Amino acid sequence: MTALDLAHAYATGDTCPIKVLDTLYEHIDDAPNAFISLTKELAYAQAQSAKIRWQRGNPLSIFDGIPIAYKDLFDIKHAITTAGAKLRMHAPPATQDAHVVSTLHHMGLTCVGKTNLSEFAYSGLGLNPHFGTPTNVTNPDHVAGGSSSGSATVVGHGIVPLAMGTDTAGSIRIPASFNGLVGFRASRQRYDKQGVFPLADSLDTLGPIAHDVIDCLLIDELELLLEKGIKYDHSLMHNDFTPYYVRVGDSWTKIDYSQHPDTWMKPLVRGQETDLIEIPANWYLDDLPPMMFIKKSPNSHGFVNPRHLEEMWRDQFDWVYREMDYAVFPVTIHPDVSGRPQVLLMLERLIKHFKAHDGVKFVTMNQIADDFAKRCPRQK
């Protein structure tokens, strides 16, 4: 079950964070050698608070009460950070949470324990002679991959839907791929590494391991972008021409064709708006992937004339200008065709056409976000 599926079950009352924890700890041995230590007392305290918030209809986030495990490089208050090494088994407990742990706790995630890894995170195999070696999800005779071996196997075995790992040279991506999961290696400064035991500080990165891309996206792009103070995004694309505030915590009833439609044909339950502003950039996201595909098969399509693109963009702009009082019309030039003389002439004609209309401004994404926030202040 994905984190999003579990959040839906919380929202509909099909289960609660306490029941999920009970089941989780009952099946902890389904992932052999995956955990170095458990944080049951902390987990149940967090789960009880999350249960109450879901019952009241005010979860901290879509992840409120969702179980998560942390690679044993992340400091968790009152727990020892072993880094998978025997010589650190009796190290002093951490006096505070790592920054990322604190951030995710404030989102309501439930910390179930600290996962195994290659000693000091120095191996792509995931072997550990001191705490045992986690087993591959699909074949116990195969390695789980490392160094975030425990983080991958606890997700792969269905113990938790999310786990945090670290990646210096593949330590998230290798175990994720070996176990049929999704691992996201963020850029080096995307997450604050305070409180995370280093391997190579100039190369270390942090990131989630999950069953699918959506769960990784929700942790990273919706929540941590906000935590970092980033004001806009352009990857969700629910509206073509108007910005909007991104919501978290939407829930819906899954379609079950074996049941009568009355049981599943129900409206979307909208979640909470955030301060993150979504800006439409559909020309890039909608047009570029198919263009990159068809260019590999030149015999399957005709020559793309810049004038055809010009006509399409001009018609779309004219319709938007006629029908809408306020609209955002980003035009992103495909890198494969930008800079050519025929394209430059096309752009000059388009810009001249756009500027001939009253009220049209050429601005940056940042200015679009600021303008939208002034026009449509979020109700808090």
UniProtKB/TrEMBL annotation:
Claim: Chaperone is one of the keywords in the record: no
InterPro entries for this protein: Amidase_CS, Amidase_dom, AS_sf
The keyword Hydrolase is annotated on this UniProt entry: yes
Keyword tags: Hydrolase
SUPFAM superfamilies on file: Amidase signature (AS) enzymes
EC number assigned by the record: 3.5.1.86
One Gene Ontology MF term: mandelamide amidase activity
One Pfam family, short name: Amidase
PANTHER family: POLYSACCHARIDE DEACETYLASE FAMILY PROTEIN (AFU_ORTHOLOGUE AFUA_6G05030) (PTHR47561:SF1)
Protein's recorded name: Mandelamide hydrolase
Organism placement in taxonomy: Bacteria, Pseudomonadati, Pseudomonadota, Gammaproteobacteria, Moraxellales
